Amino acid sequence: MSRSDDHYGRRGFLKRIGLAVGAAGLWGAGAAGAMEERPAEGERASGCELSRAVQMDFMRPGQIEAAGKKFPVVYVPFGLIEWHGPHLPVGTDALKAHGILVRCAERYGGVVFPPIYFHSWWKRAEFTVVLSQLFERLKKTGFRVIMGVSGHDVKVQLAMITEALAPVTADGEVAGIALHEAGWHSADQETGTDHAAKWETADMMYLYPELVDMGTLGEGEINLEGKPPWGITGLDPREHASVEEGRRNIERAADAIGKKARELLDSLPPEKRGFSRESLVFNSWHFI
Asked: What distance in Å separates the CA atoms of residue 47 and residue 247, rounded to the nearest whole number?
């Protein structure tokens, strides 16, 4: 497979982030390196490459089937459109979760669903029904484990994902879980999350460096307690964030989530650990 087949430009990714459902829609180093000139339009910045080979929307049916038969796990990243300081994109939560899951699937196997953007203030009873329908379709596609991973550190969003999974996993045919992307690190590892501060800035420096503009933070004092006009909570990203910190954080999260996926698959009876479809062929399988 050629490089062009296996990778995509990050700007192209931004044009297709999100998942429409119904009419409402679902939707370097620290400060010194950050002040460097940003890449010209269309030019790639240094950072990790996210393989298209594990991203469902870039895969052909036969590729999804082959991946499912090797490791029947589907990862669903969640986030929302939200202020993340003046220096990070508003889609940071889902972009971060998606990047972690792509790295996870590259290492452990499985398929990554496109990111879903929704706020925990949406009508809970109605929205969980929609999410349950999505999870049911993924189950019928053949996956045995559904990993709902949120980049938004809010318990309500995880609770909504958990509620949506409950009727889908009730028969014991599949396993599923809702996780915060940074909630499964080993206690002895220096990893973490915050809001647009050290950790999220470092994550985005690694995943999408061309989308980070540290120059917007200036050189003066900034509020780090989530207050206007900055909206940043945590350690000063100008002093503490770096590409290397982001790389370690992303890779450790990916490893922890992959191990949890294996654990959930192994928790199923042996006869239910394989891809549940013999093949993905039209019309027996059409869409999700």
From this structure: 9
